[in-house]
């Protein structure tokens, strides 16, 4: 029985494109959470209703980390599309915790959802902002009929969020959308982040 978020036993884990193990958890009868190591710029499922989530900054014109890699892979059309997103105040296209959508251009996915996680600072309630970043990304995806969505570990690079706390927010928020997507993926760059996400998914989904 795979209901109630039980992980598929390890012998049923599959290999992703990069040859890394991918572990699956059933979120609902119709929805699966998949955790894998890899490069999010190479991820896609069907090229027509899939999206990757870009951990961007408020200016939304590219940067380092995953944001830089996504812009490099998508081509200059992505920056041009981001530039057209209206500023809500000078220099801010996407305030922290919100999300915006663009096409994927040269990426293998149909769309990129840009969100901005918090810089980790305990004086500024980073947990609420990180939860909003995941929640608003999932909302925007749903409004655009995305069926397959992939996240990386938002705020866990340049923005310094501790992995364990970030994984709790990420997985518990995805759980709120258990009936809304065919597949939600976490595509994680390092062994360390991947192992934290797996442990947390077992804690939060393996009831
Ligand atoms: N695929 C998957 N994960 C990746 C990739 C990739 N290609 N590249 C990096 N990661 P970060 P943040 C992981 O720094 O902390 C940018 O300059 C990385 O190892 O990309 O939200 C933006 O413009 C880490 O686990 O995002 C912002 O200014 C995770 O992705 C700022 O950084 C997120 O790390 C955002 O910082």
TrEMBL record:
Macro domain segment(s): 20-205
Domain of life: Eukaryota
Protein name in the entry: Macro domain-containing protein
Source species of the chain: Penstemon smallii
Full-length numbering of the shown residues: 56 to 262 of 262
């Amino acid at each position: 029985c795979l209901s109630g978020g039980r992980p598929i036993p390890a012998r049923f884990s599959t290999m992703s494109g990069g040859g890394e193990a991918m572990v699956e958890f059933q979120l609902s009868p119709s929805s699966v959470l998949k955790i894998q190591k890899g490069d999010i710029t190479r991820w896609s499922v069907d090229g027509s209703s899939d999206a990757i989530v870009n951990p961007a900054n408020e200016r939304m014109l590219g940067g380092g980390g995953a944001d830089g890699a996504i812009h490099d892979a998508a081509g200059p059309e992505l920056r041009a599309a981001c530039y057209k997103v209206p500023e809500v105040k000078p220099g801010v296209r996407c305030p922290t915790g919100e999300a915006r959508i663009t096409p994927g251009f040269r990426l293998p996915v149909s769309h990129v959802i840009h969100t901005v996680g918090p810089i980790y600072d305990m004086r500024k309630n980073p947990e609420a902002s990180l939860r909003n970043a995941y929640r608003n990304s999932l909302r925007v995806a749903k409004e655009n009929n995305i069926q397959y969505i992939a996240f990386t570990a938002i705020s866990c690079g340049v923005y310094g969020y501790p992995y364990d706390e970030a994984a709790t927010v990420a997985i518990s928020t995805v759980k709120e959308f258990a009936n809304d997507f065919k597949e939600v993926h976490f595509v994680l760059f390092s062994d360390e982040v991947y192992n934290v996400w797996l442990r947390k998914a077992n804690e939060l989904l393996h009831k």
